[in-house]
């Protein structure tokens, strides 16, 4: 089935998110859409899926114009979508989520889930997904949640499948798996719209490419185009994709973690006996598949985990039992993994978000009295420095696109005088231009003698940034390896397998 | 226990541990307060028979000290049993049930020293006082599970009470009152739905305003119509209790549950239907989806606002039916503001019960029982001032919420209007 | 042009809302008036009668809330007696409204202003009639006691929530009942009984503890309104210009992010409820020391419940709350005159109040009724549901 | 000579004109005086804060006499009476004395334009208690109130003491449930609107074996009478007014009523004003002046033994003469 958009336009107030966009997705092709953060990709797809109503333009399926006034129409037309922000109900089981909207019931109106569960198991097996239809969605790692979304689209026989940044939360293995599955689907005749910021994936899977910049289509490069070409087309300027890192000698130990255990409220031990040091002027990257205890380890260091034992020493001070406030003030910058939920207050202004953990210190406050003028003035400086794209620092953080939100968090955390930077998934969901910027910032922190602890599921990021790499698997650090370790070996370690010569 | 062991308790296990500790403390308290300290003792008499049940154990008399001691020991044993079950990582339901009954009996033996307590009647009364709360809470479940906050339960109950009282009076037929009550509740709910869903007014303001509106209108009509023309407009009949064959003869349980009016039987049905429907039916799945994550629901083709609209109206109908309890189900004529804040207690029961039907029912029953118990105790006489006795059900609710329930989570999108095409 | 638009949406919408409410209420008034209904046989007379009845009622509303020409001679100034009454009715409402609004901004739903108000009234009354102090100090002591009593009562709710997670809505609903029964009991104890009497009315507070009148002995308007306005300014400053307000708002807007940024959510919860309690208690003090003087079982009135509507109508912001409370105060004061001067029953006044609130709270409704397309309306939603 | 127009105005308390208790009775009394030259009106209050403004409105309207209904209105009435010596005032359920600015001067000073209307309802309630004790087959009778406040508990206290007096005279052990004369506390609904609760309290009394119930809770009495009608286990004694007239739907179960003559006394004040005979001397309604009395047994008369009827009548005479002390 083919999908065609003609002059689709959508604006939010003064902002034109989609400006006369034309797009043609042929039968059985994987069509990649590239663009900076905030370029309007998700908006466009939400219009196609009926979640947003376009201001103007036409949508054609198999050459015929159709009216999509809601997702129901899109589904009926054979359009399925896996959203950037998952459309799953956390308190439902996988099966309940999948049958929702297409429920089968017995004659008493009671749900019949057995058929659906069977289907889920079948599709899950076919694509090697390992999804249990009875598990509660909120307990699943994001990677699995994503598979649930894909299963849903497949079960309902989408002829056009829209995938909005599906790989942002996947591990390398999972990503490879997904790309392989996409090709299988394409070969069966499904058309796929594929949005991603990872150029490698585009080159590997896409048949056609459309690049969007500031709401307009700026080109349809060939899939043979180099990553540099694609990147500069997206951003509108040349981008350096390789990270330049000068060698420096690490200083004394800044952070020392010993025998750290973290439990969750249900008593499960998520971090097991973890011991490691981070030196000044060193980047330690913790690699691992999502859900192996990295998030909890990061939170434990900052003081956000309630049930911990072991010891965490920063600069000679035992901060194990300190409150979050005290650890942050003792010199830790913390970039949380979930910026929407933990990193920002979306109804607060951008300026206020930039002082979320420094609001009660000079120059923002004298005693209990805050100074809005100074807050705004400093905000202007920060957003310039970190190249945050916005209309006004007094706008709410909710108005920012994903990439710019992350820049706000980084701008806040990296402009404090600290000894240690703890960053979880610092570039998740960012476009190439922003990644370049963030990586440079992190390296300059290290160069200025700070200790940096990065948690990332992104192998490229890990190898690009790290001076040393720790690999976490099921709550334990199973290996501490050199930065030169190969992608393949890291991949194996992350799966819990020790390749030759990596045992530490 | 070492620290690590403590840490590895799951949330339900933590709650269980808290309950075991509470049981132990309360068991010892019972022993001290009801046996050791009191010096006087007399015969405590308990009555069981309400009607012609099968086994006619009419009365049971026991020396109050013996009774308090015996039941306190039983309570402590139950606490010990609970501890071992907790250690063995089993549920402690049975032990806590035994504990609850024993503690209560230990208390009652002390309180009824030289007095008579009709035990069956005490429980039956507790159930009856809970009836409007349960209806109100069920209305809350439907409304809030679908995403609309229902502060207007009070108004819906009152509207139901008014309509059923007046119509039953005009026609002198209870069934007409019963029939009309849901419509009155639904009418208020319709206003709630139109303003909350279509015009996206703040649902909390709306709820309060609707309550004031219903109170104002019914007060006005009461004064202008029901008082002057009392014999035609406000002399409604009362539903007679229906004995369910066989079941009503079961000792104790029979009179409590199966010798009731149709309103109570409908309540059983509604609770069961909502409980099953909410978690196991298409209707419930869609309702919960609309209340948890409307965009996700919309993204699979569900019309969120229509789903909400229908469930809000249905909720109002249920509350309206519950309102009929006040008039045709209890006293007949309508009385000014006769719901007396029950809608707000129902709201609290809803939250207390974590927005689940059975949870809300338990909360309402606890409240109803505590309320009736204080009433009975004030009749047989206590040393506590009546004002403090009247506080008892409210205080009991606070203790239960803080001691046994803890943090609750509302449906994620409860109270958030949904406008399609505006948010993703 | 932009200015014009803004002016239209800030003035026109509430204005139209008010007119709509008056129209609907006018129908009610007309149809509830037996004299008008008697005219039903002749449509013209009927419509005329309806207009006359509604007009008379609204004139009374105005005369009861703002200015009454009948009272204006010999002394013109006395014509403002109704305005003074409006301010007297509004003062405690401003304070309880601020209590609810502040809690709202911190993500807490304070249904307990009623109970907190009662404890404030108790505190003010006890100090007011039991103790003897110099003028000035006595008032301050009574007010401080009221705020401490009510602050503890409110803070207790916050503490319970912080420590056990008990939902503040349940706890405050229950505590309201507890507070009113406690008050009833207190009023039956010897220290609270007037000499020789058994009625549940405490002795009146001494002259030295009363809030001074602002406009002579004939008008009841007193320092309470100044205290209320100062409190509104204080809450505005606290929320918008202080570090504590930043913490409160952060927790209210996104508790997870606030926690991640090192803000102690339990501390904020407890503190906010304590401050909210103190504000409502201040309302109780103003009521007792400013206009009622003696504590009765019904001293709480419905100030705590109206406060919720007032706060939300004021969009949970201190300035809006002041205006909403003034509106309510005007409706209350005017409502009494409406009852006195026309045959409008007092219950209908409740209905009219509800309608006014409904229309004002629903910009979208007014837009739909008047088919105004181009006006941009804000969302009608202030509260954030049970999860804060 | 043409009578000068009299405007009689009532300031009601928050119970409102439809409280089926003293507010309703006062308004009934006032309406009964309405003639061509006497107009009557009332203002109801939504909260305690409304009393003073309402009374000021009545003063501004130049009412000839303003009657405050309910003890809560006392201080507002006293203040108004002091400020408006030209207007006549009366207050129900209070002495109407000026107790000084701090309210602690006892006895207070009488005001020449303010009349207190009080009722020794314990006298008739005492008779009712005696009657109930004599009428009871089970040896248990009961009373309950809306709130623990004097205008309510004075009935309950008189009732319980009447039962005790019966026991003393007859050497019986009839139990009066719901009021403890020593602790001065008992069973209360907690307000005047919760019908379901009142019903449940009545059922609880019946389960304790009470067969005569005396509710002192305004309109809530209907709940008890309704239970008497459906349960056939008890009879009800009505309060405030003659229930046989005011709540005829329950007449088959009303043993009698303990009448508080708010209506007649209010009517009396208005008529005095109309005749120019207003006096500020306080009024105390007693059995002697029919300001309170036990109503007729009406339909249940044949169920009350003639001897008991005679004893109750004699008891009334003895109370009037002071031979029997009721408190
Ligand atoms: N509901 C909305 N209201 C207002 N502005 C919006 C809304 N949704 C998106 N925008 C704005 O529209 C622009 C396009 O956003 P969109 O989410 O489509 O970007 P994107 O290309 O998907 O970016 P990313 O790669 O970060 O996901 C952004 O500037 C964003 O801030
Ligand atoms: N005044 C009303 N009376 C009855 N039902 C109403 C009313 N207004 C809205 N509804 C119900 O609420 C639902 C949502 O209304 P609305 O018109 O805002 O949604 P919509 O997106 O246009 O829905 P639809 O898909 O039906 O066109 C409607 O489908 C209808 O069932
Ligand atoms: Mg996007
Ligand atoms: Mg439509």
In total, how many beta strands of chain C? 0
Strand order in the sheet with the most strands of chain A: 6-7-8-3-9-10
> The biggest beta sheet of chain C, please?
none
Low-confidence stretches of chain A: none
Q: N-to-C terminal Cα separation of chain C, in Å?
A: 38 Å
Shape of chain A: globular
Annotation field: number of helices of chain A: 17
Report the strand count of chain A: 22
Mean pLDDT of chain C: 90
The CATH homologous superfamily of the largest domain in chain A corresponds to P-loop containing nucleotide triphosphate hydrolases
Which assembly state applies to the chains in this document?
heterotetramer
CA radius of gyration of chain A is 23 Å
Could you give a short account of the major beta sheet of chain A? Answer: 6 strands, mixed
Chain pair forming the biggest interface:
B-C, 54 and 51 residues
Compressed to H and E, one letter per element, the order of chain C equals HHHHHHHHHHHHHHH
Bin the strand percentage of chain C. Answer: under 5%
Q: Could you please describe the fold and organization of this structure?
A:
The complex is a heterotetramer of chains A (504), B (424), C (388) and D (327). Helices cover 32% and strands 26% of the residues of chain A. Chain A is an alpha/beta fold. The model of chain A has no long low-confidence stretch (mean pLDDT 89). Chain C has 15 helices and no strands. In chain D, helix 6 crosses helix 7. The chains are: A alpha/beta (504), B mainly alpha (424), C mainly alpha (388), D alpha/beta (327).
